[in-house]
Amino acid sequence: MNATPIELLLSKLADAKQNGNGWSARCPAHEDRRPSLSISEGDDGRALVCCHAGCSVDAVCDAVGLTVLDLMPTADTLPKPNKRKLESKTANGKPRIVAKYDYCDEVGNVLFQVVRFDPKDFRQRKPNPDGGWQWKVEGVRVVPYRLRELLAEPTRPVVIVEGEKDADTLAGIGLVVTCNAGGAGKWLAEHSEFLRGRIVIIIPDNDEAGRNHAQQVAQLLHGIAESVRIVELPGTSDKGDVSDWIAAGGTASDLLTLANNTPEWNPSSQNSVRAPIEGDRAQNEFSPIPASQLGNEDQIDWLWHGWLARGYITLLVGLWKAGKSTLLAHLLHAFADCGDIAGSICTCKVLVVTEEGKGIWARRRADLGIQDNVEFVIRPFKGQPGTKEWERFVEILAESVQSSGFDVVVIDPWQSISPVWDENDAAQTMRALTPFYKITESGAAVLLMHHPRKGDANQGQASRGSGALPGFVDIICELRRFNPEQADDTRRVLKGLARFDETLPETVIELRDDGYHVVGSKADAKQLDRIPVIEKILVDSKAELTSEDVFHAWPEHKIPRPSKRSVQLDLNYGFSENRWNRSGEGKKGDPFRYSKCDSRTL
To answer: Which CATH architecture has domain 302-520?
Structure first.
């Protein structure tokens, strides 16, 4: 009988030693002081080779006088399925393990393993610190398959396939290849970062799930990879894959030629592109609406007038120590029985997703009387979620909106709960924000609490991180101190920027014992600061004073001297409010003169 590919290869490696289900040896393609070559047998009988120092399969084969084709099984060397099954099957008839795929970090440490069974099934497990395996992978870092080999050759094109078997097949013929754990629809946005600036070739399985998976991966790589091509393999049977194509005679050269003749993937050319949320379910919808059927522009359902509306997303940015959490707590209190904080507030059912502990919110509940129309999800993730976990969580929130009738979903704060690990990355930020449309389309408003960038910024640009965040939302509310230099000043400025006329550009509110009160604009607030100073000037004077007299009499005070025009406007306002008397005609030679109301003028 002819030698199998694995037997042929091992015969060329004098120092090869059994290592678990495979073998290890010193790599013949470079000066190898300790074994860095891993050899294993694929479930179809092919010999799989991996040099952890980065040598290509071609180089290894050349060094021992073989070709890559020698690693592939032939009709004479194909394993006998029945014999292999009998040798591997357990006595109680349970599924047998037929392949194990190690997912390693950048230096070759095994993070987790995908295990393939017969009958066909896949499970994942992670190594125990003291040996053995745990059949669970919670908390494990998820990386693309063959990551070390992927990073070892940064200038070569990368092929993405749907599964580990196909990846090993292509690696066996000298290509740089990767895939994700879990099969179709499970490519994570984090995987794309390892392919930044690379030429990428995606090969889908010949079925709908495979083609949808290819579209999802292409979309997540768009703008990150140098180029992306989706290559359909000619002559592949229904549900066939690249391993079938290679077995039928396809070569690495053939595949690269197909890729060169395939146009680059472009999202604008796709009629229906799978979205990154549940790739096998979520799809862009194309349903044109005539202008006459767009509805009534007056149908905005304001839950907090001007600031928060059903079906829209609001970003509330609180500058440092401006009282963002205090404002949120008062807002939650007002949702119980209506209220007004620079805009009328409706009775609402609210779901708050927060990083703060139960004790802090229990104290606010006691101080303000927050009612059970408000429910909390406390620290939903033990660490920063991955894209998959985040998308599923937002989907659960959307389902809760429909099933429990929540009117508002609050994320407090955005950056502590989101999956974005580089908040300056616009692509990551947009991928994390897009799932919120599931919540707004379910009928709720979304309120994102967020921290500011360092230093001051122009209106609408105070939020930390990528500009994709303020660009994505419908309403921006920035909370600032009215007077940052006075810690005891409880006035705050709400600055608004929105798609709606109802959102005020600027409003000053003041926190008093019974809640927030509207002061007016910043000009109104400054005028109210100046009125007591003018009143004191008039009281101290023994004569009537003109506006010029008041201007020059302004004392050294924490309220700086205003302009002459402001003094005149303040005096007119005080007179209209009956705070002081006025005489004269207001003409040249007979200007207005002001005096404090007392018994002589009553």
So the answer is: 3-Layer(aba) Sandwich (3.40)
